[in-house]
Design brief:
Elements: H1 25-51, E1 54-64, E2 67-69, E3 75-80, E4 87-88, E5 93-97, H2 100-135, H3 138-196, H4 202-252, H5 263-293, E6 296-298, E7 303-306, E8 315-316, E9 323-326, E10 331-338, E11 350-355, E12 360-369, E13 395-404, E14 415-421
Antiparallel strand pairs: 1-10, 1-14, 2-9, 3-5, 3-8, 4-7, 5-6, 7-9, 10-13, 11-12, 11-14, 12-13
């Protein structure tokens, strides 16, 4: 069947001399521009709604408590019980200092306390004894003479012992320690040229240095014991002289028993003095025991050991930094926001923390906002009153607590990005 042509669909044939029709390309360009404007507007509206309720800063770091470990007493390090970057628990031993010098001081303080307590007991007994003897007549005075002579003998025996065997032993001990010290110094002197020539190892030479130091410490301790023995002899001599004086005084009391009633008050005062001496000796003992306890340095908190700089054999001084302990489970984030960003930031607002190290985010919340800008709290704050002032947007530190670490370990100093949701 032949196809019937639709006259309405036939192309129009322009009459000769008529103008060609205008192409529609301009319409398509205008439509594309309009679509682009609509897309840009939608993106702008979305961006405004997305970012208007949040502020962000990439000037943020993880912070934490840093516990500096330092000794309270001086001495040679006997042992280092931990390694760098090792996890430790609170109370775990970190460093041990040679305790022998401090143990000697404790022993001396204990001896001084026993001596003071003995004097107190003697003074306490003498108060009622003096009261009874002064109330009696000549017979009581005569009995007091006998007691005073017995006390004199005890004092003489104590003085002879302190000035004899004890003092001789202390002097002999000093001589022995002096000999050990001289030998250690001589050995050290002989080893020094050998180590310089590399004929012996540095470790062997260090052992001779340590032996010389130990010998010096033992010599000093023996000298202190000798001084204590000499002081004890002086005390015993003074006690002997006092006992002799009491004998003479008791003899005079035979004729002046009534006047000697005042001796009761004197004995009471002696008791008070003896009690004070006991308290002072006990305080010295407690101080010595406290210093002895300081020779064992323990971790104050749970954490990780960092920057360990102490080694065995090292001589440390009070306050010298040995290491630091950082608790990795008690960290937070300090974010420095521009001052123009903090108008709507308040404590308690939700925050998102993106950790650069892991490429992951954790959640937190705003804890507090610093009271001053970072430049104001710096070591050299800006002085705007001099020179040409240029207004610079300041940054204010914001403390952000981490709610959940999601298993990530946050170490102080790590870089993070922080976003705070103000609504």
């Amino acid at each position: 069947m032949p196809e019937v042509l639709d006259e309405s669909r036939q192309p129009e044939i322009s009459p000769p001399g008529a103008a060609a029709p205008v192409p529609r390309q301009g319409h398509r360009v205008r439509a594309g521009l309009a679509a682009a404007v609509l897309i840009a507007g939608a993106a702008g509206v979305w961006s405004y709604r997305h970012f208007r309720d949040r502020v962000s800063s990439d000037d943020a770091n993880v912070d934490g408590h840093i516990s500096a470990i330092a000794p309270k007493v001086s001495g040679a390090v006997a042992a280092v019980e931990v390694l760098d970057n090792q996890a430790v628990k609170a109370g775990q031993v970190l460093v041990r200092i040679d305790p022998r010098d401090y143990q000697a001081r404790v022993d001396m303080a204990q001896a001084a306390l026993l001596q003071a307590q003995s004097k107190l007991r003697s003074a306490s007994v003498s108060v009622p004894w003096t009261t009874e003897t002064t109330q009696s007549g000549e017979s009581s005075a005569a009995a007091q003479v006998g007691n005073a002579r017995a006390e004199l003998e005890r004092a003489r025996f104590g003085y002879e012992q302190a000035a004899g065997a004890d003092l001789s032993y202390a002097r002999a001990n000093v001589g022995a320690k002096q000999a050990s010290h001289d030998r250690a110094q001589a050995d050290l002197g002989r080893m020094k040229p050998l180590v310089e020539k590399a004929e012996i190892s540095r470790q062997q030479y260090d052992s001779f240095v340590a032996a010389a130091r130990v010998a010096e410490s033992e010599l000093e301790a023996s000298r202190e014991k000798l001084a204590s023995a000499e002081k004890e002899a002086s005390i015993r001599k003074a006690a002997l002289e006092a006992a002799q004086s009491r004998v003479e005084q008791a003899q005079s009391q035979v004729q002046t028993s009534v006047a000697n009633r005042k001796q009761v008050d004197i004995k009471v005062a002696d008791t008070g003095t003896a009690e004070a001496d006991v308290k002072a000796a006990r305080a010295r003992l407690e101080a010595a025991e406290l210093e002895l306890s300081y020779t064992t340095i323990v971790a104050p908190i749970d954490g990780v050991v960092t920057r360990k700089s102490v080694e065995v054999g090292q001589i440390v001084q009070p306050g010298q930094g040995l290491m630091t302990v950082i608790p990795l489970r008690d960290t937070w984030v300090t974010a420095n926001f521009k001052e123009t960003q903090l108008a709507n930031v308040h404590p308690g607002q939700r925050a998102e923390i993106r950790v650069d190290m892991y490429g992951k985010s954790v959640t937190g919340h705003v804890d507090s906002i610093a009271g001053a800008t970072g430049s104001r709290m710096s070591l050299l704050p800006a002085e705007n009153a001099t020179g040409n002032f240029v207004k610079v947007v300041q940054r204010i530190p914001v403390k952000i607590l981490v709610d959940r670490t999601e298993g990530l370990i946050l170490r102080p100093g790590m870089n993070v990005d922080v976003t705070i949701f103000t609504r």
